Amino acid sequence: MAYADLYKKLHLVFFEKQTNNIAGLLRAIKKVNIGKWWRQYLFDTSNERAIRNNSEEHINANVFQNCTNEEDFKKAFFKILHLFKAKAILSDYFDLNRRYIKTTDIILFEDGQVKLDVVPKQFFSSAINQLYQDAFIHCSLLHTNCDLVDISSSLVYNEQQIISNLNSDLGESISTIEEAYSIVDKKRYERFGKLIESKFTDENLLTLLDKFNSRDDDFINSMVTDNADIPTIFEYVLGIIWYKVSNQQGKILDYLKLSLDADLLPVTHAAGGEADIVYEYSETDSYPEHTLLLEATLADSTNQRRMEMEPVSRHLGNHLLATRNLKSYCVFATNNLNINVISDFRNRKTSFYYNTQNPDDYIEGMKKFHWKFLI
């Protein structure tokens, strides 16, 4: 009944040109579940008093105004009704849809728009017209593990075409795929710089450290991402802090031992036998070439001793054995330092660390610093 009433009021106002029925149309819009979509489509303001007082000034150009017969009007109503239903469903499931879409690692959500990342954009640009047509054709391969070209003949990887598209789109003059990767990496860091500027200001980072300390997980997830666990987000935030402290020098996206989504937000910690963050510094007038190992944990008490004491020492020891650069050191960051962990790390400064495959291969002492943050 609600939609029948809406149809009648739309017909009166736009087909029969009875603008004095605007108030009735507004009431009919309120009765349908997706009324906000209708109001936004038909009027340029949500102020009902303004619409009633001067309706003709606030009516948007719309498809109903162009209908010349009853059949056209019915078709227009049917299309707009189902368009708004689809929009409402997409809006209701926005977070879930975004989560699924982002698992592809090729889709960006930027400035209120959904975009393909740089290289995927070029890959699909030459195929998009054919793909639009294929989308409405029955395919028996939906549940089959097959090559892309089996899905559509337009999905052929053409290296030179991608290079040509990149040059055209970005105004570059690259000639090899290696140069393309370099351009992509440059764009990636530009996006990361904008992300830090907008989302991870100094004030926000200090707030996050406070929330890590109080374990306000809901706030952390809402501020950073809900696609990663809190320890992983802590590593990510610590990496950003160190990147800012280092005047945004170095390849921080490589130093972070995390998998990131297309929006450069953390997803999971990458498994491996090395530190959480391995920050490489080139030689300057102030310090020699060295590596900084950043180890981050939110574990406390006995858990910290069990989970961090041996791995942190092992990571630094193995790194020093492999590089022989005794200028390198480790920083252990946590919100609660266990006294036995501190004692063990201090003693490591004077103890030997051996290569388990060769007892004659060892280093004498390891440098570690402890950073306990309490806001």
Layout of helices and strands:
Elements: H1 2-15, H2 22-31, H3 35-42, H4 48-53, H5 55-58, H6 70-92, H7 94-102, E1 107-110, E2 113-116, H8 118-125, H9 128-134, H10 148-151, H11 159-170, H12 177-199, H13 202-214, H14 217-223, H15 230-245, H16 252-255, E3 258-260, E4 266-269, E5 277-281, E6 290-296, H17 301-323, E7 329-334, H18 339-347, E8 352-355, E9 358-364, E10 368-372
Parallel strand pairs: 6-7, 7-10
Antiparallel strand pairs: 1-2, 3-4, 5-6, 8-9
Could you describe the 3D structure shown?
Helix content is 53%, strand content 13%. By secondary structure, it is α/β, with parallel strands linked by helices. It has three domains: 2-92, no CATH class; 107-183, no CATH class; 201-372, Restriction Endonuclease (3-Layer(aba) Sandwich), CATH 3.40.91.50. The strands form four sheets. It has a four-stranded mixed β-sheet with strand order 5-6-7-10. A two-stranded antiparallel sheet has the order 1-2. A two-stranded antiparallel sheet has the order 3-4. The mean pLDDT is 86.
Order of helix and strand elements from N to C terminus: HHHHHHHEEHHHHHHHHHEEEEHEHEEE
Strand line-up in the sheet with most strands: 5-6-7-10
Give the total of domains. Answer: 3
- The total count of strands amounts to 10
- Which fold name is given in CATH as the topology of the largest domain? Restriction Endonuclease
CATH architecture of the largest domain: 3-Layer(aba) Sandwich
Average pLDDT taken over every residue: 86
Coarse structural class: alpha/beta
Number of H- or I-type helical stretches: 18
Alpha carbon gyration radius: 29 Å
Q: Detail the poorly predicted runs.
A: none
